[in-house]
Amino acid sequence: MNRNFTSGFAASLPVAASVSAYGSVLGVLAAQKMLTWTELLFMNLSVFAGSAQFVMIDMWNPPLPILEITLAVLVINLRYLLIGASLRPVFQGTSLKHKLAFMHLVGDENWAVTMAAYYREKVDTYYLLGSGVCVLIAWCTGTLLGHSLGTAISNPEVYALDFAFIAVFTALAVSMWKGKQNIVPWLIAALLSIAAEKILPGKWYILIGGVGGAMVEALLYREKTHGTD
Amino acid sequence: MELISNDTTIIITIICSAIVTYLLRIGGLLLSERLPETGRFRVFMDALPGTLLLSLIAPGIASSGIYGGVAAVFTAGCTYKTGNVFLSMIIGVGIVALSRQFI
């Protein structure tokens, strides 16, 4: 087994724990909307995007509004354009076939784990895949367990499972910290996303905060090079 | 009365959502290869993972109250000191869980 694959898999076990907890909530909701076990599994394997699947299940009322659901998924997942773009250095030098095959299993969690590792040691796409497989197994286990248990885990807030995501992503964000040049861009990103989340519907806040913060870093960089010249 | 059966509609809905999601993933990667690789744009692309990840969580932290903020600070501090993501997560979740139980 490829060493990058196994280390990617192992590094994702903490995040996998929260993925399955989060997934169990989706499973409960899906069961209430009369989705079968196989339909949910098919959705997990083909869509493989947590927040989009939550919105799909939320809109899952017969007769199914196919166009509306597809558009909602498009808007929520627009961030994958940026996530995909940010993976360019990891995919450097790989063939188109390799890219087409490896990009499917890219979710928020394994992307974050991979990018954090990429800054420390130059991991390759097999790390991303190992991480993705780990998250996929956790996602399927969690959602299908929630689906069969029904309402057994009806109140995940008590155990702060909803906070597990924030905690894992906070820890991963620390690994992406590159130094004091990040202070202002990260502050802007945080403020923009918090403000956008309050003002705009859906998931626009992720794009606005992410692009806004990164643009600030790019602008500051130019000023600095002019100043030191 | 129905033009297509319910089962077919379910499968079509899932497939449409899956195609859209996949196209965004692969589209982002392939488009990025056509973009400049130097200068300010490079700095933008390098900064993107951090700011994107932060934007995913910042509203959640902001709306989780004082103890959510405290938990996030302890989680970040623990990762910074130990580099252990799992331990940091347990600490963060533990603080929020305890605050909800007792406060």
Provide structural commentary.
The complex is a heterodimer of chains A (about 230) and B (about 100). Chain A has about 230 residues and is an all-alpha fold. Chain A is built from 13 helices and no strands. In chain A, helix 2 packs parallel to helix 4, helix 9 runs parallel beside helix 11 and helix 12 packs antiparallel against helix 13. Chain B is flat and about 50 Å long. In chain B, helix 3 packs antiparallel against helix 4. The mean pLDDT of chain B is about 90. Chain B is built from 4 helices and no strands. Helices cover about 85% and strands about 0% of the residues of chain B. At the A-B interface, helix 2, helix 3, helix 5, helix 6 and helix 9 of A face helix 1, helix 2, helix 3 and helix 4 of B.
List strands and helices in order, with pairings:
The complex is a heterodimer of chains A (about 230) and B (about 100).
Chain A: H1 3-11, H2 13-32, H3 37-46, H4 50-58, H5 66-76, H6 79-86, H7 88-91, H8 96-102, H9 108-120, H10 125-149, H11 161-175, H12 183-199, H13 204-228
Helix pairs in contact in A: 1-10, 2-4, 2-10, 2-11, 3-10, 4-5, 9-10, 9-11, 12-13
Chain B: H1 6-32, H2 39-62, H3 65-82, H4 85-102
Helix pairs in contact in B: 3-4
Keywords:
heterodimer; A: 229 residues; mainly alpha; 13 helices; globular; B: 103 residues; 2 domains; 4 helices; flat
Task: Report the portion of residues of chain A in β strands.
Answer: under 5%
End-to-end Cα distance of chain A, whole Å, is 50 Å
N-to-C terminal Cα separation of chain B, in Å? 56 Å
Proportion of helical residues of chain A: over 70%
Question: How many strands of chain B?
Answer: 0
* Percentage of residues in DSSP E strands of chain B: under 5%
Shape of chain A: globular
